[in-house]
Amino acid sequence: MNDNGQLRGGIDLGGTKIAAIIVDADNQVLGQSRQPTPTGGGPADVARQMAEAMSGAAEAAGVKTRALQGIGVGSPGDVDNDAGTVSNARNLPDWIAPFELAAALSKQLGSAVHLGNDVQVATRAEFELGAGRPYESVLGVFWGTGVGGGIILNGVPWRGRGGAGEIGHTVVRRGGAQCPCGRRGCLEAYAGRGAMETRARNEVDKGTKTELFKLMKARGRDRLTSSIWDQALQQEDPLATELIDRAVQALGAGIASAVNLLDVEAVVIGGGLGVRFGQPMAERISTEMHPHLFNDSRPPAVRVAALGDLGGAIGAALLAA
Ligand SMILES: [Zn+2]
Question: What are the angstrom distances between the C-alpha of 1 and each of 27, 28, 33, 116, 148?
Answer without folding.
Answer: 14, 13, 22, 29, 37
